[in-house]
Each structure stands twice: as structure tokens, then as C-alpha cells.
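Per reviewer request, we include the raw input and output of the structure prediction for the construct analysed in the revised manuscript.
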Amino acid sequence: MNPVSQGPRYSMMKKARWVAGWALIFCLFSAATVSAYTAQEIDREVNVALQNFKKEMKGGDSFLKQAKGVLVFPSVVKAGFGIGGEYGEGALRVGGKTVAYYNTIAASIGFQIGAQAKTVILAFMEGEALKKFRDSEGWKVGVDGSVALVTVGIGDSLDSTKYKEPIVGFVFGQKGLMYNLTLEGSKFTKLDK
């Protein structure tokens, strides 16, 4: 076929993908808003996520005890078709108790089809980093602060003395700790629950 004759067809397919991508993002965020979790549901899921973290990460329990605060998103759902978005709700715990609820939202552009869920845990290792996070109206990774993502191999121990960064992050998928990911551009906003 002549490449010129494919021009309008290619352009329409491109527009269709763009519209479908935005429709998917709209549906994802609309569904997330409509089916928002209650405080009790979030706390229950956060408990499960923290138990799994402590089981999977050797030394995870002592690491979390040294943190000034821990922000846990038990299920961040990412969906996309060319253009993607993700959404999740979680809780900030200080001294083992929930002090606030947050959501996370991020958008991405690039090759992506389908949906996946992940667990995100941020450990605030310094009081100043935790205070800056709590005082913000909307905290964005890479703008308001950086997060050092942990990549430990299976069987490795999580030694808190190795991590000197103010905020340390963990991302888990269905098969455990996920590698080569970034939280850049993720925004965290406080929720009223």
C-alpha cells in the first residue's frame, strides 16, 4: 500500500488511541473517586501491607521502627493505553498509629497497555522530611522532595544503616519488590476521612 494512502487512517487511529487513553484515565479516576475507601478499610489494608512487608523484607520490622513516619498505599492501580494514570489511597502512620489519610495520583505517557496494581511504602527517616511532607498542601516526588527507591535482592537483608536518605521508598508487585521503577511525578494529597 502507498504510505500516503495510510496517512488519514494512521491519523485517525492515533486520535482514537488518544481518546481511548484519556477515557480510560477519566474512568480510572472517576471510579477511584466514587469507590473511595473508608478510613477503616484503608487501615485494614495498610495493616496487611505492612505485615507482608515485614515478611518479605528481612530486617523490615527494625527498619520501620527507626522511621519517623511511614506512608503506605496498599494498592496503587495503574492503567493505560498509550497514556496512563495511577491512583491509590493510603495512610500515614507515626508511632504505629494512623495520623492522616492520603491519595496518590500520577500520569504517564509512553507505550503501555493494560492495568496493574502495586503497593507503595515510603519511610520518612528524618523528622524534618516528615514535617515538610505533612505541612504541604500537595507533595510531589521530584519537586517537593526526592525518594530513594530500595532495590534489594531476594534473601538480602534490609540494613537501615545503609540508607542515609531522608525518604526511602519500596514498591511491591504481585511477585515482590519491583525494580527499575520510579515514583517521579507522583503527587500525594491529604484526604478527609
